[in-house]
Design goal:
The chain is an all-alpha fold. The chain has nine helices and no strands.
């Protein structure tokens, strides 16, 4: 399980750097500053942790299920950014609402990156004995502040194609989603299986599905007729 968690943390950091390549340099340095301040401010809480406590957290089913929810929200936000960015690359004129949504999603960093930073800070505190905790926190903050813009620049040099980076970001988040399920479920399920079929609920779901499909089909046909009439009027004019 530790190998799975470590792999997940590495991919989260890689995805975070990929996301920074789509932001302006001012936003990249702002993210680096926030991450560095997080390291500086989080060290009093990091020194209170222990390897035994972290192992207990990883084996706590309730905490892992809550973590899975946060992971899913973060992944879906990043996937929404990828799909919207791909749509903007291939479309012509865009609505202002879509452009604003793209800017908001581009501004949102990876939520999982900060727990990874915190875990790295905890490991740093336990690895270097005899050095002040505050000094270690400031050293890590300086390294983070330098590495985020540096790795972002290196990623742009190695992968200059924006569409390739976008595809890689999408695949990384899909991988994070599947690895997160493995890491957080830990062999346990939240719902106990049941062999009995609730026919009332099944029929109700089927009815809702059919009504929704029929409504969507009617709305689509009405929209197509309206567009056809509009095009005919434009041709006559």
């Amino acid at each position: 399980m530790e190998i799975v968690v470590m792999t997940l943390m590495v991919v989260v950091c890689f995805s975070y750097i990929l996301k920074q390549t789509y932001r302006k340099w001012s936003a990249v340095f702002f993210s680096a500053t926030v991450a560095a301040l997080f390291c500086v401010l989080a060290w009093p809480y990091a020194i209170e942790q222990s390897k035994t406590q972290i192992a207990d957290w990883l084996s706590d089913p309730a905490l892992m299920r809550d973590t899975a929810v946060v992971l899913s929200v973060d992944v879906f936000l990043q996937l929404a950014f990828c799909m919207l960015a791909a749509h903007m690359m291939t479309s012509g004129r865009l609505k202002n609402r879509m452009v604003m949504t793209y800017k908001v999603l581009r501004f949102i960093p990876s939520i999982l990156f900060y727990p990874v930073l915190f875990s790295g800070l905890v490991v740093l505190m336990f690895s270097f004995h005899g050095i002040g905790f505050k000094t270690l926190a400031w050293c890590m903050a300086g390294a983070v502040f330098i590495l985020i813009p540096g790795l972002t620049w290196l990623m742009k040099v190695l992968l200059p194609e924006k569409d390739l980076r976008l595809e890689l970001l999408f695949l990384c988040n899909i991988f994070i989603l599947f690895m997160g399920v493995i890491a957080t479920v830990n062999g346990q399920t939240a719902v106990v299986g049941n062999n009995e079929v609730d026919w009332g609920a099944f029929l109700g779901f089927t009815a809702l599905l059919l009504v929704g499909a029929l409504t969507g089909m009617l709305l689509w046909r009405a929209r197509q007729r309206r567009l056809r009439r509009k095009s005919e009027l434009e041709v006559k004019q």
